[in-house]
Structure prediction request, 260 residues.
Amino acid sequence: MHVHQQSNRKDQETVAGILFIISAPSGSGKSTLVNALRSQVGGIDFSISWTTRQPRGSEQSGREYHFTTREEFERMVQDGEFLEHAEVFGNYYGTARRSLDEATAAGRDLLLDIDVQGARQVRAKIPDAVTIFVMPPNPKVLRTRLRNRSRAEGHVDEAELDRRSSEARKEIENYRQYRYILVNDVLERAVAQLEAVVVVERLMRAGTPLDQRTRRDFEIAEACRESNSRERLRPILESFGISQDSDDPEPPLQYKLPGG
Ligand code: ADP
Ligand code: 5GP
Prediction:
C-alpha cells in the first residue's frame, strides 16, 4: 500500500519507496552524477527544489529548480509546504512536501539533492532515508571545477568562488552523518558507485538474493560505506585540513546480505 505510514515515533514517518538524499560541497560534481544516474536508472523521481537564487546559465524554472521570490518562499514556509528548507549561500532552498507525497503515492523512489542542513532535517523525520555524500578529491580540483563551470556559464565571480570553496570544508566536516561516501575523482567510477548504491539498497529492501552481477554491485556499495572508508578518505580529509577523529563514528548500520 503506497501511503504514508506512521511509525511508533510521532514525528517520524516511512515512505513506500526509498528516499535517497545526496549532498556535496558545491562544485563536487553532484549534478553531473545525478544526471548520469537519471539517464541510466529508472524508477526514481528527482525532486525539483524551490530556491530564491537567480537562474544560472541555461537553467529553467521547473527543470533545475522552481525559482521564486523571497516573499513567496516565506509564504510557503508559513503554510508548512516544505519537508525541509535551509539558507545556503544567502539564498533559500527547500523541498516541497508534495514531491515526497507524489513519489510515495506512485510507489517510486525519490532522490533529494540537498545540503547538509536539509539532510539533517529530513533524516530526523525519515530515519531510513539512504544518505550519500559526494566529496571532491582535493581543494585544488574543487576550485578548478567551480571555475570551469562558471566559465562555461559565461560568468566567473571570484568572490562567489571563494565563498563556495571555503564553505566546502564546513560541509565535508559532516561526512560522517552519511551512510555512503563517494569520491568524485574519475567520473565513470563515481557514477558506477552511485548506481551500485541505488541497486543494492533496492535489492536489500526487496530481500532479493544476489547473483553474479549484483554481487559486484554489493562489493562496490560496501566499499563506499562510511564505516569502510577511513583509509580511503584520510588523504582527502587532510587536503581540506580536516582531521579524522579517533572516536568511533555513529554505530554503522547493520547490513545483512539478502537471503544470508
Ligand atoms: P555540483 O552539482 O556538485 O555543484 P557540477 O555537477 O555542476 O557540480 O560539476 C562542477 C563542474 O565539474 C562541472 O563543470 C562538471 O562538468 C565538472 N565535473 C564533474 N565531475 C567531474 C569529474 N569527475 N571530473 C572532472 N570534471 C568533473
Ligand atoms: P546550487 O545553487 O549550486 O544549485 O546549490 C547550492 C546548494 O544548495 C547545494 O548544496 C544543493 O544541494 C543545495 N540545495 C539545493 N536544493 C536544496 C533544497 O531543496 N534544500 C536544501 N536544504 N538544500 C538544497
Notes: Residues 1-10 have pLDDT under 50 and may be disordered. The radius of gyration is 18 Å. The domain at 19-47+109-239 is CATH 3.40.50.300 (Rossmann fold). The pocket of guanosine-5'-monophosphate (ligand 2) is lined by residues 23, 26, 49, 53, 84, 86, 88, 93-95, 113-115, 117-118 (CB under 6 Å).
